[in-house]
From TrEMBL, chain A:
Keywords from the UniProt entry: ATP-binding, Nucleotide-binding, Transport
Region of interest: Disordered: 1-22
Signal peptide: none
PROSITE patterns from the UniProt entry: ABC_TRANSPORTER_1 (PS00211), ABC_TRANSPORTER_2 (PS50893)
Domain ABC transporter: start-end pairs: 5-237
GO MF terms, alphabetically ordered: ATP binding; ATP hydrolysis activity
Protein name: ABC transporter ATP-binding protein
Length: 266, 302
């Protein structure tokens, strides 16, 4: 199995922060290609920072990062990275279809083919909304458009930063299944940052639990739920065991990190 | 200014129904129909311009002002002309006012074209090359706080009595608001969207063309809303100072005042007011066509 994402000894300090508390310290991470991995941890553990480094949006101080054997910058040059953030980040003056087609319009030099937008919109159940503008859609629909736009590239690596955290519980669950369906068919490596234990367990093959101050990988947990995952599997007893294990690990991770400066120690 | 804008919006109101129907054809189906949900506020907002509820307050104020004007004009005919005289001046020689208005409008629009156009280009340069920003900004600010009117006599000396000094004054007056607004619009791009462009390795040119310039459009139009009426001020002031043979309402007003033709003075002012309203209406129309996606237009429609 080829390494999809390889992070070795990565350390990142935010400028002006305390030098003894790097945002990320000695991160070692190996994610095989076509795996679905979640990053979870207390706030301030650097999971979003790590995601931005993987996306090539931020640099790092020491260590190395490679996506399918190349640096994030080179990967983005050939449009191998899809990004979905917490907000849909669509262009409000373009129709939904034009928004999904955007990855094909920019950086044509990469020579990368993109999927026809209508096909992707059908996959996320929004073919009827193709000619509408973002302000006419609900939050859940907008985030589905953002997911469709990211998949349009057939990215080798899909990076998602709490993409469903602003949505209500029902929409969120529906989108999780939709994402799983899309991922199953267009197998790519997914790194998914989340705050929700349940979301992490439902979606992932592996859960990377991080601790804060300094940001470190605390533990990597395997999720041995069968795929494809349907509602029965997700409701089963094993699911609850897994959730409890992740919660316990998060507790330990929380204690392992120094107390945040803005909280009273327990 | 605000009221003026409001009136313009309403007078062009009949189009609104059509425009809304086109741009929001999608969600119209899940919007409640007026019959089933008549909350008081939205009903007042949906009333047609022709409903007395909408136009009567403004008409009442207009009548009060007209009565007050007439009272003063009757008491002091050398201070204020009667409204009838102003009307007679306008209808008596419409060609005079039209040609002069045309000359002034031409100067104002050419001035805006030069001023706003160069400001837009400079804003683009500033957003792409930070050094340009640091080099230019102090001078732009100084230019803005200088009462440009004061330069006009010097410009007349330099450029003569033709069109050039007037266009230059108008261009200088309209330059700064456009520069500041466009520069802000080009910079205030949502970070998540910028991140998406960067992970796609979009070139600077692509970011500028597909993200920054469309994003600056609301700011640009807001600047035009300020700057177009301002251009009339620039043109008229320049005409006052450089009252050459080229005509224009400013020249006409000054000459009429010196010969105590108050009816012509106020008729000229009325023409200027009408031109200002016209320019604002144009901006409003452009905003409605171009900014259907922007919050500023949606909130008025909701």
């Amino acid at each position: 199995m080829t390494a999809g994402i390889e992070v070795r000894g990565l350390t990142k300090r935010h400028p002006g922060a305390r030098p003894d508390r790097p945002a990320l310290q000695d991160i070692d991470l190996e994610i095989p290609h076509r795996r679905f991995v979640s990053l979870i941890g207390p706030s301030g553990c650097g999971k979003s920072t790590l995601l931005r480094i993987l996306a090539g949006l931020e640099g790092h101080d020491t260590g190395s990062v490679s996506l399918l054997g190349e640096s994030p910058r080179r990967a983005s040059r050939r449009k191998a990275i899809g990004l979905v953030s917490q907000t849909p980040a669509l262009l409000p003056w373009l129709t939904v279809r034009a928004n999904v087609a955007l990855p094909g319009k920019v950086n044509r030099r990469s020579g990368k083919e993109v999927d026809p937008p209508d096909e992707l919109l059908r996959a996320v159940g929004l073919e009827d909304a193709a000619d509408q503008y973002p302000h006419q859609l609900s939050g859940g629909m907008l985030q589905r458009v953002a997911v469709a736009r990211a998949f349009a590239l057939r990215p080798d690596v899909l990076l998602m930063d709490e993409p469903f955290s602003a949505l209500d519980e029902f929409t969120r669950e529906a989108l999780q299944y939709q994402l799983l369906g899309l991922w199953q068919r267009r197998a790519t490596t997914v790194v998914f940052v989340t705050h929700s234990v349940r979301e992490a367990v439902v979606l992932s093959d592996e859960i990377v639990v991080m601790s804060a101050r300094p940001g470190r990988v605390h533990e990597v947990l395997d999720v041995d739920l069968p795929r494809p995952r349907d509602k029965d599997i997700v409701k089963g007893p094993h699911m609850h065991d897994l959730e409890d294990r992740v919660r316990a690990s998060l507790q330990r991770a929380w204690k392992a990190g120094a107390a945040p400066d803005d909280l009273v120690p327990l | 200014m605000r009221e003026e804008a409001g009136i313009v919006t309403r007078t062009t109101g009949p189009d609104e129904g059509r425009a809304v129907g086109v741009t929001t054809s999608g969600p119209a189906k899940n919007r409640p129909t007026p019959e089933t949900s008549p909350p008081a506020v939205s009903r007042a907002r949906r009333r047609s311009v022709f409903h007395p509820f909408v136009w009567s307050p403004a008409v009442v104020v207009l009548l009060v002002l007209a009565v007050a004007w007439s009272a003063v004009a009757d008491a002091h005919p050398y201070l204020l002309p009667r409204l009838g005289e102003v009307g007679a001046a306008l209808t008596g020689d419409p060609a005079l006012f039209l040609t002069n208005a045309w000359a002034t409008l031409g100067i104002a629009l050419v001035g805006v074209g030069v001023g706003a156009g160069s400001a837009f280009l400079l804003a683009l340069l500033m957003s792409e090359i930070p050094v340009v920003r640091r080099a230019v900004m102090p001078f732009a600010v100084v230019l803005n706080v200088t009462p440009v009117v004061a330069i006009t006599p010097a410009l007349v000396v330099a450029f003569g009595f033709g069109m050039t000094p007037k266009v230059v004054v108008t261009a200088i007056i309209t330059f700064f608001p456009v520069l500041i607004n466009v520069a802000t619009g080009l910079r205030s791009v949502p970070v998540p969207v910028l991140h998406v462009f960067r992970t796609l390795h979009a070139s600077r040119w692509e970011v500028l063309l597909r993200l920054r310039i469309p994003n600056s459009l609301p700011y640009t139009l807001a600047a035009l809303r300020v700057v177009l009426p301002l251009s009339l001020v620039g043109a008229v002031v320049a005409e006052f100072v450089a009252a050459g043979s080229s005509g224009g309402l400013g020249t006409m007003i000054r000459n009429s005042a010196s010969t105590a033709r108050l009816d012509h003075v106020y008729a000229g002012v009325a023409c200027l007011a009408a031109m200002g309203v016209l320019l604002l209406a144009l901006v409003t129309l452009a905003e409605r066509r171009l900014l259907f996606w922007h919050e500023s237009r949606r909130s008025t429609r909701a």
